[in-house]
Amino acid sequence: MKQIFIWVLSFWTVIGIGLSRSDAGLEEFNAKERLLSFLETAVVSNSLQVPLTLIQGAASKGAVCLDGTPPGYHLDRGFGSGSNSWLIQLEGGGWCNTIRSCVLRKTTRRGSSKFMEKQINFTGILSNKAEQNPDFYNWNRVKLRYCDGASFAGEGQNEANQLYFRGQRIWSAAMEDLMAKGMHNAEQALLSGCSAGGLASILHCDEFKDLFPKTTKVKCLSDAGLFLDATNVAGGHTLRDMYGGVVTLQGVQNNLPSTCTSQMPPTSCFFPQNLVANIKTPMFLLNAAYDAWQVQESLIPSSADPNGFWRDCKMDQAHCNSSQMLFLQDFRNQMLNAINDFSKSNQNGLFINSCFAHCQSERQDTWYENDSPRIGNKAIAVSVGDWFFDRMSVKAIDCPYPCDNSCHNLIFNDDVTSTITISESTSLTFTLLNLLSAFLITLTCSKCIMGGLSLTGD
Predict the structure, then answer these.
(1) Which of 353, 361, 450 is nearest to 400 (CA)?
(2) Which residues form the signal peptide (predicted)?
C-alpha cells in the first residue's frame, strides 16, 4: 500500500514539474513576444492605413502560414512618377526553432493570418508622404506579412502538430501574385526587410533580381538583418544553437545558397556574415553596431546571466561599466570585420551607426525626421536614396559609442525583458503541488525508515 501511495505522489510530482516547465516555456515565449512588440513600436501620427490582402490560390500551392491559413500582404499603389516602381518590405519577427515554440507561434499573427491586423500603418520607408519618405513615397509599396518563422526559407511540415513550414512557398506565391498585379512592368524595384525580414532580404535578394528583365533596376536593403554568430557573455553561442533548430526543424537547408552550403554547415549559411559577400545583386546594409535585439537575445540572454551581473547594462547602455562596454565594442568590431569583403564592392552600400537600436527603416523617427540618426549629417533615408539612385557612393560607418549624439537608443524595462529561463541543467521552478508532493514523500519515507521498511516493502 505504501508503495502505491508513494508511486502516485511521485507521478503527480512529475506531472507538476511538467506543468511548471510548460508554464515557464509559455512565459519565455510571451517575454520574447513582448520584446519583439516593443522593438516594433513606433510613434505614428496621421499615417496611412493599408488593408490586408490574403493571397488567393496560395493554399492550393501549399503556401501557407504555420497553422495552414493563407499568407497575406498590404499593398498601397504607387502614383505619378512612381507608378512603375516597386518596394517590397519583408516583415520581421524572430523565428521558431522547436515544435513547442512553433505551436505557440501559430496562435499569433506571426504564425497565422487569422490573427493578423486587418490594416496596418505605413510609416518610414513605407510612408506615402514626400516629407517623410522623399525617394519612395509614390512607389507601389508592399509589406509582406511574416507567418512562417524561418525568414521565408522553410520547406516541410509536422503532421502530428499540424505545423506547416512553408516560408519558401510563401515567398514564391507572394512574388507571383504581385508580378500578376503589375510588378512585372517595374522599371525599378527594391527588396527590403527588417530583422528576420532583413535576413530574408539577404537570402532572397538574387532570387528577387531574377524575377525581372535585365533592364529593370533592382537592388536590396537589409535593415537590422546582420545577425552575427557571436559568443554570449557566458561563452556560449545562443544564436547558433537557435538557428540550428530553425534550419533543421523547418527544412531550410535546401533553400540556402549552394555557394555557402558546399563549404559550410547549413546553420552557418543562415548567418548573413557568410552570405553577403557572394550576393550578386547590389545590396545596402543598414544596421546598428550595437543591435538592440542581438544585445538582448544573443549576447546577454537571461540564461547566460543567471546572477544578473549584466542586467542594468542590458536594460540601458548608459549603465554599462568599462569591462561590459569593452565586450560590446568587441561585438561592433566583429560586425565590421564581417562586412569587410562586402564593403569592397562599389555596388554595395552601408550605414552602420553606433546606436543601440533595431529596425530603423520602418520607424518614422529614425528613417526621416528632423532629429533622425545621422552619419556625416546625412539621415538614413537620404543615404539609402543616394545609394539606390546612384547619386553617390554610400559607405557610412559611425565612430564607436558614445560619440554619436543623434542615436535614438532603446531603453528597456522589466515588463519587456522579464522571463523565466529553465533548462535540463538548472533547478526547476516548483508549483505548490510539487512542494506538497515532495513533502509527503519525505514524510512517508521517514516513517518507512523509522519502521525499518524499504520503499518496495509491503
Answers:
(1) 353
(2) 1-20
What strand order describes the sheet that includes 85-90? 119-122, 48-54, 72-76, 140-144, 85-90, 188-194, 217-223, 283-288, 349-353, 395-397
Q: Does 352 map to a domain?
A: yes
- C-alpha 80/C-alpha 274 separation (Å) is 40
- Structural domain of 292: 49-426
Residue 17 belongs to some domain of the structure: no
Domain count, the chain: 1
Q: Which residues are catalytic?
A: 195, 291, 358
* pTM for this entry: 0.85
69 within 8 A of 110, measured Cβ to Cβ: no
pLDDT at residue 454 greater than cutoff 60 = no
CA 108 to chain centre: 15
Parallel, antiparallel, or unpaired for β 85-90 and 119-122?
Answer: unpaired
> In the predicted model, is pLDDT for residue 44 greater than 70?
no
CATH number, domain at 131? 3.40.50
Report yes or no on 373 lying in a domain.
Answer: yes
pLDDT in tens, 143-155: 999 999 999 999 9
